[in-house]
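Hey, quick one: can you model this chain's 3D structure?
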Amino acid sequence: MSEISIRPAMADDQESLSTLLAASYAGLKDSYDPHGFDAALPYMARANPRLLASGTYYVAEIDGVAAGCGGWSVEKPGNGEIIAGVGHIRHFATHPVHVRKGVARRLLQHCLAEARDAGISTMMCQSTLPAEPFYRSAGFRQVDKIEVEMGTLALPAIEMRIDLTAR
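Sure thing. Here's the predicted structure for all 167 residues.
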């Protein structure tokens, strides 16, 4: 098995990560209303330039090829709210050809360790419905069922949290 390397995302990753996000999120269609999902996909499948420039958004590579992406921020997705000691998992995705190779797990471990080192005590996550078991297996617990705005639509999601001081 090839080694997974993690590096900070950069502005010039925008096109390749948007392609990766589109490929990854297309696989979620069966978990949502297909008409609403098709309308939301363009919003979901676009790499956010602010995240790419944040220094806390990453590319996971296998053999030099982007296999996944994801990161964290202190700003809450959607409204930018900042609460001391609270971080937020942001825009995780794994390319379908690299699913079940440990890409997302490695990215998540990297983000949680980095956030802990930065003084974050609680990490929040707005999980897609199919990703909930992944986050639960990593120690996240459901807080609430929510809806995440994607353009003019709202998709069902699960708000989750993990205590980083207990690790």
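One thing worth noting: The longest strand covers residues 153-163.
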